[in-house]
């Protein structure tokens, strides 16, 4: 989150220039039907894939029976849980090793738009690798660096160096005491302005932004309706909150509405008392699926049933919408229709940390929640 102190307009131009470089956004009418863009797998492709996998599985199992690998065994482990379960150990040792030459390849330099890999060979089926002394430059398609800002030269790197020289690396104090400096204030104002809400509060770790802040919004007697594909940080935060958690099928608005209706009609288990609050949690772009949330439909349901909405824009902020302001911008929805906006600086913005954005009441609650 290092940023040279300067005008907000300069930073805004800097962020939006990244959008022009990438050309990965397109306008989307809020009233248009949301459609998934995944290509359906044909039956023959699925059959061939599974057949190849099971042939390999059978082959390596036969190999395991007749070929001794001289593997080390765990010693003095009585009373301890095994480090690996049976299938995991079998898969890593006998299957994954066979494709080890194309996995976990060392690279050199900065993994920007392109990445340079160190070439290597194996002569013993993946047990050992030797470097050849050559390198291969490849297009990087496996990175969160959506806008190409994560480089060791350019505006990001230069401003980071200047801010370190001016403010040092750490403050050695919690923010509530002596740890807040002008960069925090500027970043929070800029973030709120960028996403179009009243205020924001920033944190040092993206995962913790979900995991440690959700318990501040929720407690026993609250109900959470969570998409089944939500990130592990959300799941951890919900478990810590003490709230009741119900999962709806991925991007299934019919199932979500049924859950809302049941929650309002039946209330809390045993007592049937009304829920203190009902919170819907979804991601803008789902990190493990790549699918886009059906935000217009969720906002409509949230308003219809008087629920709250928490939107995780970790993978969509900076990479979606005409101005790069996430799925809210992509659909042309008013940011104030989302009660709590969460995002990270670790993806498109090539930094670290996360933010919670919304009304001043929401951010004030977080600053007084510990």
UniProtKB/TrEMBL annotation:
Q: Which residues form the Aminotransferase class I/classII large domain?
A: 137-367
| PROSITE patterns recorded | AA_TRANSFER_CLASS_2
Per the UniProt record, the source organism is Pseudolycoriella hygida
Which ranges of the sequence are coiled-coil?
Answer: none
Top-level taxonomic group = Eukaryota
Q: Per the record's keyword annotation, is Transmembrane helix included, yes or no?
A: yes
Q: Which UniProt keywords apply?
A: Acyltransferase, Membrane, Pyridoxal phosphate, Transferase, Transmembrane, Transmembrane helix
Recorded catalytic activity of this chain's protein = L-serine + hexadecanoyl-CoA + H(+) = 3-oxosphinganine + CO2 + CoA
Which cofactor does the UniProt annotation name?
Answer: pyridoxal 5'-phosphate
GO biological processes? ceramide biosynthetic process; sphingosine biosynthetic process
Q: What is this protein called?
A: serine C-palmitoyltransferase
Record's InterPro entries? Aminotrans_II_pyridoxalP_BS (IPR001917), Aminotransferase_I/II_large (IPR004839), AON_synthase_class-II (IPR050087), PyrdxlP-dep_Trfase (IPR015424), PyrdxlP-dep_Trfase_major (IPR015421), PyrdxlP-dep_Trfase_small (IPR015422)
- What EC numbers are recorded for this enzyme? 2.3.1.50
Q: What class of enzyme is it?
A: transferase
Q: Which residues cross the membrane?
A: 41-62
Look up the record and report any one GO term of the cellular component aspect. Answer: membrane
Q: Which GO terms describe its molecular function?
A: pyridoxal phosphate binding; serine C-palmitoyltransferase activity
Q: Name one Pfam family in it.
A: Aminotran_1_2
Family in the record: Belongs to the class-II pyridoxal-phosphate-dependent aminotransferase family.
